[in-house]
Amino acid sequence: MEVLYSSTRGAEGKFKASEAILRGLAPDGGLFVPDHIPHLDRSLKEISELNYQQTAYEVMKLLLTDYTKEELEYCINSAYDSKFDTQDIAPLAEADKAFYLELYHGATIAFKDMALSILPYLMTTAAKKNNAKNEIVILTATSGDTGKAALAGFAEVPGTKIIVFYPKHGVSPIQEKQMVTQKGDNTCVIGIEGNFDDAQTGVKKLFTDPALAKEMDEAGYQFSSANSINIGRLVPQIVYYVYSYTRLLGEGRIADGDPINVVVPTGNFGNILAAYYAKQMGVPIAKLICASNSNKVLFDFFQSGTYDRNREFVLTSSPSMDILISSNLERLIYHIAGDDSKVDAEYMKQLSQSGKYEITDDMRKKLADFYGNFASEEETAATIKNLFEKTGYIIDTHTAVASAVYNKYLQETRDDTVTVIASTASPYKFTRSVMKAIGHDDASKDDFQLADELSEITKTAIPEAVTSIRDAQIRHDIVVDKTEMEKAVRTFLKI
Ligand SMILES: *Cc1c(COP(=O)(O)O)cnc(C)c1O
After folding, report:
1. Which of 84, 130, 275, 447 has the fewest CB atoms inside 10 Å of its own CB, making it the most exposed?
2. Ligand 1 center–CA 131 separation, angstroms
3. Please, how many CA atoms are within 13 Å of residue 404, restricted to the half-sphere of its CB?
4. Counting atoms of ligand 1 from 1, which one is nearest the CA of 268?
Protein backbone atom coordinates (compact mmCIF):
# COMPACT_ATOMS: atom_id res chain seq x y z
CA MET A 1 0.00 0.00 0.00
CA GLU A 2 1.34 3.40 -0.98
CA VAL A 3 2.53 5.66 1.83
CA LEU A 4 1.83 9.35 1.31
CA TYR A 5 3.22 12.25 3.27
CA SER A 6 1.48 15.35 4.55
CA SER A 7 2.31 18.27 6.80
CA THR A 8 2.12 18.00 10.60
CA ARG A 9 0.47 21.43 10.48
CA GLY A 10 -2.29 20.64 8.04
CA ALA A 11 -1.17 22.26 4.77
CA GLU A 12 -3.14 20.82 1.89
CA GLY A 13 -1.71 18.10 -0.23
CA LYS A 14 -0.46 14.58 0.08
CA PHE A 15 2.94 13.93 -1.37
CA LYS A 16 4.73 10.88 -2.62
CA ALA A 17 7.90 10.00 -0.75
CA SER A 18 10.14 11.35 -3.52
CA GLU A 19 8.26 14.66 -3.55
CA ALA A 20 8.52 14.96 0.23
CA ILE A 21 12.26 14.29 0.06
CA LEU A 22 12.72 16.91 -2.65
CA ARG A 23 10.80 19.52 -0.70
CA GLY A 24 12.31 18.77 2.69
CA LEU A 25 9.87 20.93 4.62
CA ALA A 26 6.11 21.22 4.05
CA PRO A 27 4.93 24.52 2.56
CA ASP A 28 3.45 25.72 5.88
CA GLY A 29 6.67 25.08 7.80
CA GLY A 30 5.38 21.77 9.13
CA LEU A 31 7.18 18.45 8.84
CA PHE A 32 6.17 15.66 6.49
CA VAL A 33 4.67 12.63 8.23
CA PRO A 34 3.54 9.31 6.74
CA ASP A 35 -0.23 8.74 6.55
CA HIS A 36 0.32 5.32 8.07
CA ILE A 37 3.28 3.37 9.35
CA PRO A 38 3.54 0.03 7.60
CA HIS A 39 4.45 -3.15 9.42
CA LEU A 40 7.52 -5.12 8.30
CA ASP A 41 6.32 -7.68 5.79
CA ARG A 42 9.02 -10.25 6.49
CA SER A 43 9.64 -11.83 9.87
CA LEU A 44 12.50 -10.62 12.04
CA LYS A 45 13.89 -14.15 11.84
CA GLU A 46 14.05 -13.89 8.05
CA ILE A 47 15.56 -10.43 8.19
CA SER A 48 18.21 -11.70 10.61
CA GLU A 49 19.77 -13.54 7.67
CA LEU A 50 20.18 -10.36 5.64
CA ASN A 51 23.13 -8.00 5.56
CA TYR A 52 22.84 -4.27 6.25
CA GLN A 53 22.06 -3.30 2.66
CA GLN A 54 19.38 -5.97 2.30
CA THR A 55 17.87 -4.98 5.63
CA ALA A 56 17.84 -1.36 4.46
CA TYR A 57 15.86 -2.41 1.42
CA GLU A 58 13.29 -4.30 3.51
CA VAL A 59 12.65 -1.19 5.59
CA MET A 60 12.90 1.51 2.96
CA LYS A 61 10.68 -0.20 0.39
CA LEU A 62 7.80 0.05 2.88
CA LEU A 63 8.10 3.79 3.48
CA LEU A 64 9.50 5.12 0.20
CA THR A 65 6.85 3.42 -1.87
CA ASP A 66 7.18 5.41 -5.09
CA TYR A 67 10.82 4.40 -5.56
CA THR A 68 11.29 1.30 -7.69
CA LYS A 69 13.26 -1.69 -6.44
CA GLU A 70 16.10 -0.81 -8.82
CA GLU A 71 16.16 2.80 -7.66
CA LEU A 72 16.25 1.86 -3.99
CA GLU A 73 18.93 -0.76 -4.49
CA TYR A 74 21.00 1.72 -6.45
CA CYS A 75 20.70 4.30 -3.64
CA ILE A 76 21.41 1.76 -0.90
CA ASN A 77 24.38 0.14 -2.59
CA SER A 78 25.91 3.49 -3.53
CA ALA A 79 25.61 4.73 0.04
CA TYR A 80 26.63 1.77 2.18
CA ASP A 81 29.87 0.77 0.51
CA SER A 82 33.57 1.15 1.26
CA LYS A 83 32.97 4.65 2.60
CA PHE A 84 32.25 2.68 5.76
CA ASP A 85 35.27 1.12 7.42
CA THR A 86 33.44 -2.10 8.27
CA GLN A 87 31.25 -4.39 6.20
CA ASP A 88 28.82 -4.60 9.10
CA ILE A 89 28.15 -0.87 8.51
CA ALA A 90 26.71 -0.60 12.03
CA PRO A 91 28.43 -3.12 14.34
CA LEU A 92 27.37 -3.92 17.89
CA ALA A 93 29.98 -3.89 20.64
CA GLU A 94 29.18 -5.39 24.03
CA ALA A 95 30.55 -3.57 27.06
CA ASP A 96 29.41 -3.62 30.66
CA LYS A 97 26.14 -5.44 30.00
CA ALA A 98 24.93 -3.19 27.19
CA PHE A 99 25.28 -3.36 23.43
CA TYR A 100 26.73 -0.26 21.84
CA LEU A 101 25.39 0.16 18.32
CA GLU A 102 28.33 1.90 16.64
CA LEU A 103 26.84 4.29 14.13
CA TYR A 104 30.09 6.10 13.43
CA HIS A 105 31.88 3.97 10.88
CA GLY A 106 31.09 6.23 7.93
CA ALA A 107 33.07 8.99 6.23
CA THR A 108 32.67 11.66 8.90
CA ILE A 109 32.69 9.40 11.98
CA ALA A 110 29.30 10.40 13.39
CA PHE A 111 25.90 8.75 13.07
CA LYS A 112 24.75 11.42 10.62
CA ASP A 113 26.59 9.43 7.95
CA MET A 114 24.02 6.65 8.30
CA ALA A 115 21.41 8.84 6.63
CA LEU A 116 23.46 11.47 4.85
CA SER A 117 25.43 9.01 2.77
CA ILE A 118 22.17 7.91 1.15
CA LEU A 119 20.22 11.19 1.07
CA PRO A 120 22.03 12.62 -2.00
CA TYR A 121 21.13 9.48 -3.96
CA LEU A 122 17.53 9.55 -2.75
CA MET A 123 17.32 13.20 -3.65
CA THR A 124 18.88 13.13 -7.11
CA THR A 125 16.75 10.08 -7.91
CA ALA A 126 13.71 12.03 -6.69
CA ALA A 127 14.66 14.98 -8.90
CA LYS A 128 14.82 12.70 -11.93
CA LYS A 129 11.53 10.97 -11.11
CA ASN A 130 9.75 14.29 -10.71
CA ASN A 131 11.39 15.98 -13.71
CA ALA A 132 12.63 18.77 -11.45
CA LYS A 133 13.99 21.53 -13.70
CA ASN A 134 15.83 23.46 -11.01
CA GLU A 135 19.15 22.87 -9.40
CA ILE A 136 18.68 21.71 -5.79
CA VAL A 137 20.21 23.91 -3.12
CA ILE A 138 20.63 22.05 0.13
CA LEU A 139 20.33 24.44 3.02
CA THR A 140 21.51 23.05 6.31
CA ALA A 141 21.90 24.19 9.89
CA THR A 142 24.30 22.09 11.89
CA SER A 143 25.28 21.63 15.50
CA GLY A 144 28.50 20.14 14.12
CA ASP A 145 27.96 16.68 12.67
CA THR A 146 25.18 17.07 10.11
CA GLY A 147 27.16 19.77 8.33
CA LYS A 148 30.18 17.68 7.51
CA ALA A 149 28.17 14.56 6.75
CA ALA A 150 25.94 16.52 4.37
CA LEU A 151 28.94 18.22 2.74
CA ALA A 152 30.63 14.87 2.23
CA GLY A 153 27.45 13.45 0.74
CA PHE A 154 26.63 16.30 -1.63
CA ALA A 155 30.11 17.54 -2.66
CA GLU A 156 30.44 17.36 -6.45
CA VAL A 157 26.99 15.80 -6.86
CA PRO A 158 25.76 17.15 -10.22
CA GLY A 159 22.60 19.27 -10.06
CA THR A 160 23.11 20.22 -6.41
CA LYS A 161 24.67 22.93 -4.30
CA ILE A 162 25.02 22.82 -0.55
CA ILE A 163 25.16 25.64 2.00
CA VAL A 164 25.92 24.83 5.64
CA PHE A 165 25.49 27.19 8.60
CA TYR A 166 27.20 26.29 11.88
CA PRO A 167 27.50 28.14 15.21
CA LYS A 168 30.99 29.64 15.02
CA HIS A 169 31.61 29.15 18.74
CA GLY A 170 29.59 25.99 19.29
CA VAL A 171 31.41 23.10 17.60
CA SER A 172 34.54 21.10 18.43
CA PRO A 173 37.84 22.03 16.69
CA ILE A 174 37.82 18.76 14.76
CA GLN A 175 34.21 19.31 13.69
CA GLU A 176 35.06 22.82 12.48
CA LYS A 177 38.18 21.73 10.64
CA GLN A 178 36.25 18.92 8.96
CA MET A 179 33.79 21.44 7.58
CA VAL A 180 36.03 24.35 6.62
CA THR A 181 38.39 22.10 4.67
CA GLN A 182 35.57 20.68 2.53
CA LYS A 183 36.41 20.47 -1.17
CA GLY A 184 33.94 20.92 -4.02
CA ASP A 185 32.87 24.04 -5.92
CA ASN A 186 29.24 23.37 -5.08
CA THR A 187 29.89 23.62 -1.33
CA CYS A 188 29.61 26.65 0.95
CA VAL A 189 30.30 26.68 4.71
CA ILE A 190 29.38 29.68 6.86
CA GLY A 191 29.95 30.26 10.57
CA ILE A 192 27.33 32.35 12.33
CA GLU A 193 27.54 34.50 15.42
CA GLY A 194 24.73 32.71 17.21
CA ASN A 195 23.88 29.24 18.48
CA PHE A 196 22.44 26.17 16.74
CA ASP A 197 18.85 27.18 17.41
CA ASP A 198 19.55 30.53 15.71
CA ALA A 199 20.97 28.68 12.71
CA GLN A 200 18.04 26.28 12.56
CA THR A 201 15.43 29.02 12.95
CA GLY A 202 17.18 31.11 10.28
CA VAL A 203 17.24 28.22 7.85
CA LYS A 204 13.56 27.45 8.43
CA LYS A 205 12.76 31.10 7.74
CA LEU A 206 14.63 31.03 4.43
CA PHE A 207 12.78 27.85 3.50
CA THR A 208 9.35 29.30 4.05
CA ASP A 209 9.93 32.75 2.50
CA PRO A 210 7.67 32.76 -0.59
CA ALA A 211 9.34 35.81 -2.17
CA LEU A 212 12.76 34.22 -1.93
CA ALA A 213 11.39 30.92 -3.30
CA LYS A 214 10.05 32.81 -6.33
CA GLU A 215 13.36 34.54 -6.98
CA MET A 216 15.18 31.26 -6.57
CA ASP A 217 12.86 29.59 -9.05
CA GLU A 218 13.48 32.34 -11.59
CA ALA A 219 17.21 31.82 -11.17
CA GLY A 220 16.80 28.05 -11.62
CA TYR A 221 17.16 26.97 -8.00
CA GLN A 222 15.02 25.30 -5.37
CA PHE A 223 15.81 24.69 -1.71
CA SER A 224 15.81 21.35 -0.04
CA SER A 225 16.93 20.22 3.36
CA ALA A 226 19.49 17.75 4.60
CA ASN A 227 18.42 18.28 8.21
CA SER A 228 16.63 15.56 10.08
CA ILE A 229 13.36 17.31 9.31
CA ASN A 230 13.71 15.69 5.87
CA ILE A 231 11.90 12.36 5.74
CA GLY A 232 14.81 11.14 3.60
CA ARG A 233 16.96 11.39 6.71
CA LEU A 234 14.52 9.74 9.03
CA VAL A 235 13.70 6.63 7.01
CA PRO A 236 17.31 5.40 6.64
CA GLN A 237 17.70 5.82 10.41
CA ILE A 238 14.95 3.31 11.09
CA VAL A 239 17.06 0.66 9.38
CA TYR A 240 19.73 0.32 12.03
CA TYR A 241 17.20 -0.26 14.81
CA VAL A 242 15.77 -3.15 12.84
CA TYR A 243 19.31 -4.32 12.08
CA SER A 244 20.48 -4.17 15.72
CA TYR A 245 17.53 -6.33 16.73
CA THR A 246 18.02 -8.87 13.96
CA ARG A 247 21.76 -9.02 14.67
CA LEU A 248 21.11 -9.81 18.31
CA LEU A 249 18.60 -12.40 17.16
CA GLY A 250 20.97 -13.86 14.57
CA GLU A 251 23.73 -14.17 17.13
CA GLY A 252 21.45 -15.85 19.65
CA ARG A 253 21.72 -13.03 22.16
CA ILE A 254 17.93 -12.77 22.27
CA ALA A 255 15.09 -15.09 21.28
CA ASP A 256 12.62 -14.14 18.56
CA GLY A 257 10.09 -11.72 20.01
CA ASP A 258 12.13 -10.82 23.11
CA PRO A 259 11.88 -7.12 23.92
CA ILE A 260 14.91 -4.83 23.90
CA ASN A 261 15.36 -1.34 25.27
CA VAL A 262 16.99 1.39 23.23
CA VAL A 263 18.92 4.37 24.63
CA VAL A 264 19.48 7.36 22.37
CA PRO A 265 21.56 10.48 23.05
CA THR A 266 19.15 13.10 21.83
CA GLY A 267 19.25 16.62 20.44
CA ASN A 268 16.87 17.28 17.59
CA PHE A 269 14.86 14.11 18.38
CA GLY A 270 15.51 12.59 14.94
CA ASN A 271 17.41 9.50 15.97
CA ILE A 272 15.02 8.48 18.74
CA LEU A 273 12.01 9.19 16.54
CA ALA A 274 13.45 6.66 14.08
CA ALA A 275 13.52 4.13 16.95
CA TYR A 276 9.88 4.98 17.70
CA TYR A 277 8.98 4.32 14.06
CA ALA A 278 10.96 1.06 14.13
CA LYS A 279 8.81 0.01 17.07
CA GLN A 280 5.62 0.88 15.16
CA MET A 281 6.94 -1.23 12.28
CA GLY A 282 7.17 -4.26 14.51
CA VAL A 283 10.56 -4.29 16.24
CA PRO A 284 9.90 -5.41 19.84
CA ILE A 285 11.30 -2.31 21.53
CA ALA A 286 10.08 -1.91 25.10
CA LYS A 287 11.47 1.37 26.42
CA LEU A 288 12.72 4.25 24.33
CA ILE A 289 15.19 5.93 26.63
CA CYS A 290 15.79 9.56 25.71
CA ALA A 291 19.09 10.89 27.03
CA SER A 292 19.78 14.62 27.22
CA ASN A 293 22.80 16.65 28.29
CA SER A 294 22.46 19.76 30.47
CA ASN A 295 20.16 21.27 27.85
CA LYS A 296 17.51 19.04 29.35
CA VAL A 297 14.38 20.49 27.80
CA LEU A 298 13.24 17.01 26.74
CA PHE A 299 13.74 15.51 30.19
CA ASP A 300 11.57 18.27 31.65
CA PHE A 301 9.00 17.65 28.93
CA PHE A 302 8.73 13.94 29.75
CA GLN A 303 8.51 14.80 33.47
CA SER A 304 5.91 17.53 33.27
CA GLY A 305 4.16 17.46 29.90
CA THR A 306 5.31 21.03 29.29
CA TYR A 307 7.84 21.85 26.60
CA ASP A 308 9.56 25.06 27.61
CA ARG A 309 12.52 26.42 25.72
CA ASN A 310 12.75 29.57 27.86
CA ARG A 311 15.99 28.81 29.61
CA GLU A 312 19.67 29.40 29.32
CA PHE A 313 21.40 27.66 26.43
CA VAL A 314 24.38 25.72 27.81
CA LEU A 315 27.49 24.85 25.82
CA THR A 316 28.49 21.30 26.76
CA SER A 317 31.06 18.66 25.83
CA SER A 318 28.36 17.01 23.68
CA PRO A 319 27.77 19.96 21.31
CA SER A 320 25.69 18.00 18.80
CA MET A 321 23.02 17.80 21.49
CA ASP A 322 23.13 21.47 22.49
CA ILE A 323 19.63 22.18 21.27
CA LEU A 324 16.58 23.73 22.90
CA ILE A 325 14.14 23.34 20.01
CA SER A 326 14.01 19.67 19.12
CA SER A 327 12.46 19.89 15.66
CA ASN A 328 11.47 16.27 15.27
CA LEU A 329 9.48 16.25 18.49
CA GLU A 330 6.83 17.92 16.33
CA ARG A 331 6.27 14.62 14.56
CA LEU A 332 5.77 12.78 17.83
CA ILE A 333 3.38 15.51 19.04
CA TYR A 334 1.37 15.09 15.85
CA HIS A 335 1.18 11.30 16.32
CA ILE A 336 0.26 11.33 20.01
CA ALA A 337 -2.44 13.90 19.26
CA GLY A 338 -3.97 11.17 17.08
CA ASP A 339 -2.43 12.41 13.82
CA ASP A 340 -4.18 15.73 14.40
CA SER A 341 -2.59 18.62 12.51
CA LYS A 342 -4.81 21.27 14.16
CA VAL A 343 -3.54 20.37 17.60
CA ASP A 344 0.03 20.25 16.37
CA ALA A 345 -0.21 23.60 14.57
CA GLU A 346 -1.60 25.23 17.71
CA TYR A 347 1.25 23.94 19.89
CA MET A 348 3.86 24.99 17.35
CA LYS A 349 2.33 28.45 17.23
CA GLN A 350 2.60 28.65 21.02
CA LEU A 351 6.18 27.44 20.82
CA SER A 352 7.17 30.16 18.38
CA GLN A 353 5.22 32.88 20.23
CA SER A 354 5.86 32.13 23.89
CA GLY A 355 8.53 29.44 23.70
CA LYS A 356 6.38 26.79 25.34
CA TYR A 357 3.31 24.57 25.22
CA GLU A 358 1.66 21.99 27.46
CA ILE A 359 0.20 18.75 26.13
CA THR A 360 -3.00 17.13 27.43
CA ASP A 361 -3.15 14.22 29.89
CA ASP A 362 -4.42 11.99 27.10
CA MET A 363 -1.36 12.77 25.03
CA ARG A 364 0.92 12.22 28.01
CA LYS A 365 -0.47 8.72 28.41
CA LYS A 366 0.76 7.92 24.93
CA LEU A 367 4.31 8.72 26.00
CA ALA A 368 4.43 5.72 28.34
CA ASP A 369 7.03 3.99 26.18
CA PHE A 370 9.47 6.85 26.66
CA TYR A 371 11.75 7.37 29.61
CA GLY A 372 13.71 10.62 29.77
CA ASN A 373 16.69 11.61 31.86
CA PHE A 374 19.84 13.68 31.55
CA ALA A 375 23.52 13.64 32.43
CA SER A 376 25.55 16.54 33.78
CA GLU A 377 29.03 17.33 32.46
CA GLU A 378 30.61 15.59 35.45
CA GLU A 379 28.46 12.48 35.04
CA THR A 380 29.28 12.33 31.33
CA ALA A 381 33.02 12.49 31.93
CA ALA A 382 32.85 9.97 34.80
CA THR A 383 30.96 7.55 32.57
CA ILE A 384 33.68 7.63 29.91
CA LYS A 385 36.34 7.04 32.55
CA ASN A 386 34.53 4.27 34.41
CA LEU A 387 33.59 2.35 31.30
CA PHE A 388 37.13 2.59 29.94
CA GLU A 389 38.73 1.51 33.19
CA LYS A 390 36.30 -1.34 33.67
CA THR A 391 36.22 -2.71 30.13
CA GLY A 392 38.82 -0.96 27.95
CA TYR A 393 36.01 0.29 25.70
CA ILE A 394 36.20 3.99 24.86
CA ILE A 395 33.16 6.07 23.95
CA ASP A 396 32.60 9.67 22.92
CA THR A 397 30.84 12.32 24.99
CA HIS A 398 27.44 11.98 23.29
CA THR A 399 27.39 8.23 23.74
CA ALA A 400 28.51 8.78 27.32
CA VAL A 401 25.41 10.91 27.98
CA ALA A 402 23.35 7.93 26.85
CA SER A 403 25.39 5.49 28.89
CA ALA A 404 25.09 7.66 32.02
CA VAL A 405 21.33 7.94 31.57
CA TYR A 406 21.09 4.18 31.10
CA ASN A 407 22.87 3.70 34.42
CA LYS A 408 20.35 6.01 36.09
CA TYR A 409 17.51 4.07 34.48
CA LEU A 410 18.96 0.78 35.74
CA GLN A 411 19.28 2.10 39.26
CA GLU A 412 15.73 3.37 39.25
CA THR A 413 14.03 0.38 37.65
CA ARG A 414 16.29 -2.70 37.90
CA ASP A 415 14.94 -3.48 34.43
CA ASP A 416 17.33 -6.10 33.00
CA THR A 417 15.94 -6.13 29.45
CA VAL A 418 18.68 -6.45 26.81
CA THR A 419 19.66 -2.91 25.92
CA VAL A 420 21.08 -1.24 22.83
CA ILE A 421 22.79 2.13 23.29
CA ALA A 422 23.09 4.24 20.16
CA SER A 423 26.77 5.17 19.90
CA THR A 424 26.63 8.29 17.82
CA ALA A 425 30.19 9.46 17.34
CA SER A 426 33.74 8.22 17.33
CA PRO A 427 35.73 9.27 20.40
CA TYR A 428 38.18 10.82 17.90
CA LYS A 429 35.64 13.45 16.96
CA PHE A 430 35.62 14.87 20.49
CA THR A 431 39.18 14.02 21.40
CA ARG A 432 39.88 16.73 23.94
CA SER A 433 36.79 16.05 26.03
CA VAL A 434 37.38 12.30 25.88
CA MET A 435 41.05 12.67 26.86
CA LYS A 436 40.11 15.03 29.67
CA ALA A 437 37.60 12.48 30.95
CA ILE A 438 40.26 9.78 31.19
CA GLY A 439 42.69 12.14 32.86
CA HIS A 440 44.92 13.22 29.98
CA ASP A 441 44.08 16.86 29.47
CA ASP A 442 47.02 18.86 28.15
CA ALA A 443 46.32 22.42 27.05
CA SER A 444 49.65 22.67 25.24
CA LYS A 445 48.65 19.95 22.76
CA ASP A 446 46.33 20.43 19.82
CA ASP A 447 43.47 18.04 19.07
CA PHE A 448 45.53 16.08 16.57
CA GLN A 449 48.34 15.47 19.04
CA LEU A 450 45.73 14.40 21.54
CA ALA A 451 44.37 11.97 18.95
CA ASP A 452 47.82 10.37 18.73
CA GLU A 453 47.83 9.94 22.49
CA LEU A 454 44.29 8.63 22.57
CA SER A 455 45.31 6.05 20.03
CA GLU A 456 48.24 4.92 22.14
CA ILE A 457 46.30 4.77 25.38
CA THR A 458 43.25 2.96 24.02
CA LYS A 459 45.04 0.85 21.38
CA THR A 460 42.55 1.97 18.75
CA ALA A 461 43.36 3.32 15.30
CA ILE A 462 42.90 6.99 14.44
CA PRO A 463 40.14 7.11 11.82
CA GLU A 464 40.97 8.24 8.31
CA ALA A 465 38.46 11.10 8.75
CA VAL A 466 40.86 12.66 11.28
CA THR A 467 44.20 11.93 9.64
CA SER A 468 42.98 13.27 6.30
CA ILE A 469 42.11 16.74 7.63
CA ARG A 470 45.22 17.15 9.74
CA ASP A 471 47.10 19.16 7.15
CA ALA A 472 44.23 19.98 4.84
CA GLN A 473 43.88 23.48 3.46
CA ILE A 474 41.14 25.75 4.83
CA ARG A 475 38.71 26.63 2.06
CA HIS A 476 35.83 28.33 3.86
CA ASP A 477 36.30 31.27 6.21
CA ILE A 478 33.08 33.29 6.07
CA VAL A 479 31.50 34.27 9.38
CA VAL A 480 28.27 36.30 9.48
CA ASP A 481 25.83 37.55 12.10
CA LYS A 482 22.74 35.38 12.59
CA THR A 483 20.68 38.17 10.99
CA GLU A 484 22.68 38.01 7.77
CA MET A 485 22.03 34.46 6.68
CA GLU A 486 19.84 35.41 3.74
CA LYS A 487 22.47 37.81 2.44
CA ALA A 488 25.10 35.07 2.64
CA VAL A 489 22.89 32.69 0.66
CA ARG A 490 22.28 35.33 -2.00
CA THR A 491 25.99 36.03 -2.29
CA PHE A 492 26.86 32.36 -2.83
CA LEU A 493 24.06 31.82 -5.36
CA LYS A 494 24.66 35.20 -7.03
CA ILE A 495 20.98 36.19 -6.87
C1 LIG B 1 23.18 14.78 15.87
C2 LIG B 1 23.81 14.05 16.97
C3 LIG B 1 23.07 13.63 18.09
C4 LIG B 1 21.62 13.99 18.29
O5 LIG B 1 20.78 13.32 17.37
P6 LIG B 1 19.31 13.87 17.08
O7 LIG B 1 18.79 13.05 15.98
O8 LIG B 1 19.49 15.32 16.70
O9 LIG B 1 18.53 13.74 18.34
C10 LIG B 1 23.72 12.89 19.07
N11 LIG B 1 25.03 12.58 18.95
C12 LIG B 1 25.77 12.97 17.91
C13 LIG B 1 27.21 12.62 17.86
C14 LIG B 1 25.19 13.70 16.87
O15 LIG B 1 25.93 14.06 15.82
Report:
1. 130
2. 33
3. 28
4. 8
Decide: 273 in ligand 1 pocket, CB within 6 A.
no
From the CB of 228, is ligand 1 less than 6 Å away? Answer: yes
Atom of ligand 1 nearest to the CA of 269: 9
Q: Which of 73, 43, 36 is nearest to 56 (CA)?
A: 73
Instruction: Give me ligand 1 centre to Cα 423, in Å.
Output: 10
Q: What is the pLDDT along the chain (495 residues), one digit of tens a residue?
A: 899 999 999 999 999 999 999 999 898 989 999 999 999 999 999 999 999 999 999 999 999 999 999 999 999 999 999 999 999 999 999 999 999 999 999 999 999 999 999 999 999 999 999 999 999 999 999 988 899 999 999 999 989 999 999 999 988 888 999 999 999 999 999 999 999 889 989 998 998 899 999 999 999 999 998 988 899 999 999 999 999 999 999 999 999 999 999 999 999 999 999 999 999 999 999 999 999 999 999 999 999 999 999 999 999 999 999 999 999 999 999 999 999 999 999 999 999 999 999 999 999 999 999 999 999 999 999 999 999 999 999 999 999 999 999 999 999 999 999 999 999 999 999 999 999 999 998 889 999 999 999 999 999 999 999 999 999 999 999 999 999 999 999 999 999
For the Cβ of 266 lying below 6 angstroms from any atom of ligand 1, the answer is yes
pTM of the model: 0.95
Counting Cα atoms < 13 Å in the Cβ hemisphere of 398 gives 32
Active site residues per annotation: 112
The neighbour count for residue 242, using CB atoms within 10 Å, is 22
**Which of 174, 268, 273, when mutated, tests ligand 1's pocket best, judged by the most ligand atoms within 8 Å of its CB?**
268
Ligand 1 pocket mutation pick from 116, 320, 328, 330 by most atoms within 8 angstroms of CB: 320
For ligand 1, atom 1, which residue shows the shortest CA distance? 320
- Name which residue sits closest to atom 8 of ligand 1, judged by CA: 268
Number of alpha carbons in the 13 Å side-chain half-sphere of residue 413: 15
